[in-house]
Amino acid sequence: MAGTRGACFDQMSNRRYRNQGLNLALVAGSAWLALFGCSDESVQVRPAPSNGSASVVLGSGETQYAPLEGEPIISLTPGFQGGFHIYAAFLAYGFAAERLDMHLVTTWGANDAWRFPTNAWIKVRPVVDAKGDNALMAYGWPAQLTNAPCAQGQRVRVDVVVEDEAGLSASDTCYFVADVPAQLRESNCP
Q1: Over the stretch 122-176, which tens digit does the pLDDT of each residue have?
Q2: What are the chain's domains?
C-alpha cells in the first residue's frame, strides 16, 4: 500500500548533539546497527507469498521503527560532516531475507530540483509489528537532503524501494515539511 502511510520520520531523532565526538559515535553506531544489527531468532518471518507480493512501509527512527501519519514538520539533524539528514526506518513484509537492497531518495524544490539518492544493502531483523504481523525492520539510516540549508518550510518527498536477491521488491513514498535550525538556514537560496 505504497504512499498511504504519510510522513516518515521520527521527531525524537531531531536532537542536536553539541559534542561532535558523541555525534560521530552515534552516527557510526546507528549505521553499524542498520547494517549488522542483531536479529531475534525466536520470531519467524513469514515467507514471501507464492504470488510474489511484498510491501514496505516507511517510518522513522534512529534506534527503532516508529510509524507516522500525515506530513509533520520535522527538524533536520545536522551531521558531523556538514550535511543534514533525518533518520529513516522501514518495515518490510513478504520478504524472507537477512539483507535487503534499499534505494532511498529524498527530493524537494520546484520540479524536484534537489535530489539525494542513496543505495545500500541493509541488514534487517525480524520483528512483530503493532498488529501482530511478522515483518523485517531496518532503522537508523541517515537520509540526507541536498542543499538542506535552503529547505526551510519546503515539502520533502522520500521514496524507498527495497528488493531481495531473488528480485522481489516493494516501494513506499512519504512527505514531510523541513525545519532547518534557525542558525543554520541559508538566506541566499536559489
Answers
A1: 999 999 998 999 999 999 899 999 999 999 999 999 999 999 999 999 999 999 9
A2: 11-184 (2.70.50)
In tens, the pLDDT along 110-123 reads 889 999 999 999 99
Separation between Cα atoms, residue 15 and residue 118, nearest integer Å: 23
pLDDT at 17: 32
DSSP assignment, residue 33? H
> Is residue 94 helix, strand or coil?
coil
Q: Assign 3-state DSSP to the chain and report helix, strand, coil percentages, each to 5.
A: 15, 40, 45
Residue 147 has, within 13 A of its CA and on its CB side, a CA count of 16
Q: What is the pLDDT of residues 51-101, one digit of tens each?
A: 458 999 998 888 988 877 789 888 898 988 888 998 999 999 999 999 999
Q: How far is CA 70 from each of CA 2, 3, 132, 148, rounded to the nearest angstrom?
A: 14, 11, 23, 21
Q: What is the DSSP letter of 13?
A: G
Whole-number Å distance between alpha carbons of 94 and 170: 9
Query: How far, in Å, CA of 47 to CA of 27, rounded?
Result: 32
Please identify which residue in the block is written with the cell numbers 518550510: 153
Q: What are phi and psi of 69, to 5 degrees?
A: -115, 155
